[in-house]
Amino acid sequence: MHVWRRLLQLGVAMTVVTLVMGVVHPSAAMAKTVTYQVVTNEIAAKQKDGSTIEVYRFDPAVYVATEGDDVNLFIRGLKGHDHPVVLEGYNVKGVVHRNQVTKLEVHAAKPGFYRLICTAHYDAAHEGPMEAYLVVVPSGAAKAAAAHAAAVHGGTM
């Protein structure tokens, strides 16, 4: 289980490095509202003994914003029934229902890594963990990335 958490952390770190290195378009680094379309997903794997293991996931599972941005997560319930969710650190809560879209809104006031967790699928014993991460990059880093990208690409991308 720790291997998957480490791989997720590596993926998040690579996303942040990409942003800071200015690979994204400068206007994206300065966005005021960031919107993500997310779905709930179920992954099933048949085991050697014939049994099936199912886990629930958010797709995508990493959301990047700049400090000061407003973040909108539109989460569509595709698989499973109700998914009660909490964005830790901001205490934003909601319930994602099957065949419906739930909107979570947060003002990304604090840089850091924040876990979005489905409290019904919080660990392997409960077909999880069903979690995703909001990465809030300090505004100074985003401005530096945009300036670097503009310098490298001559102001155009």
From TrEMBL:
Q: Which domain of life is it from?
A: Bacteria
- InterPro entries of this UniProt entry? Cupredoxin
Q: Gene3D superfamilies given for it?
A: Cupredoxins - blue copper proteins (2.60.40.420)
Q: What name does this protein carry?
A: EfeO-type cupredoxin-like domain-containing protein
